[in-house]
Design goal:
99 residues; Jelly Rolls; 4-stranded antiparallel sheet; 9% helix; globular
């Protein structure tokens, strides 16, 4: 229930679905127009859209990810994510460096 309240007030919510030594899976939900400001990943990661589309941006590229599409990147890549509509996506963070 706290995730719903967070989403309603902040425009974003996340829930760790699985966490282990080698991989962490996080479900992220964003309201339309919400931007996750530029940040690094703690390890190599993959973002997979679960519906609609999001804009994944780095210093040199902008990629629109449609439902079911993915992008993979290394920990040194600063990136931001914008929800073009209310959307959910998975973030899969891998590697022992994250643990």
């Amino acid at each position: 229930m706290s995730q719903v309240a967070t989403f309603a007030t902040s425009g974003r919510s996340s829930l760790t679905l699985d966490h282990g030594d080698e991989m962490t899976v996080v479900l992220v939900v964003l309201k339309a127009g919400f931007v996750l400001k530029q940040h690094p990943a703690p390890a190599a990661a993959t973002v997979i859209t679960r519906g609609g589309n999001i804009m994944f941006s780095t210093k040199t590229r902008e990629i629109t990810l449609e439902q079911g599409e993915a992008v993979t990147f290394t920990a040194d890549i600063l990136h931001s994510v914008k929800a073009n509509e209310d959307r959910a996506f998975l973030v899969i963070i891998g590697g022992a460096a994250h643990a």
